[in-house]
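User: Some background: our group keeps a shared notebook of sequences we're curious about, and every so often someone picks one and asks for a predicted structure to add to the entry. Today it's my turn. The entry only has the sequence so far, pasted here. Could you supply the structure so I can complete it?
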Amino acid sequence: MTVMANEIENVTERIIRQLYNNGNTDKASLSALRSASTIDGYRAQKVWPVFLSNLDENWLSKDGRATRVENAIFAAVRMYALHQQASDYCVFARKVFVKKTEKKEKKDKNDVSGLELFEALNHLKQNADSPEALDRRVQALLGTSNFTAVIDQLVHLMQIIKSKKNNVQIDYARLAGDLYKFQLGYRQANEVRLHWGEQYYRSFGKSNDNNSADNK
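Assistant: Of course. Here's the predicted structure to add to the notebook entry:
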């Protein structure tokens, strides 16, 4: 599963980089992505050349029904397309994982690091005048194990993020990995929802240094 998730993330990043194309964005494909709810929809056909050519043959459908990998990557790239609309910078960036001892050095170098989606939503909540609407959307998402319902709620959350115009960059590749795992079964979906909940409800004002002994 770990190797598979990493491969999914790498392919998702490659697709997004091709669509962004160093600022010369593929506007037709991004528009199609925003209006297509699933990979097998008519509007999604516009992005098939970029999307399907990057997928491993073993990830492709054998019977015309989208695979879990196809669903996960398509959904994550679609969220990127929704966020990228009307933005003059790339809204995608991989999250850089660093050790605590390296954090100051990384900060001093101004390394670009994206946030995972629910980390970004957490920051948005901290700065919101009235976070209740955002809370309701997140709670509705975390309260379901239905993949289609999760995607519907993600679309609403992307609309909120895009409306804030706060120059946040999100790791949509990591989102693809999470969405793949979410589809594997009830236990895996619960693990993903807990991970998202921890990111959204975490208090950034509290240090975890004193709690390290509890995390065995």
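Suggested note for the entry: Residues 94 and 171 are 5 Å apart (CA to CA). The chain has ten helices and no strands.
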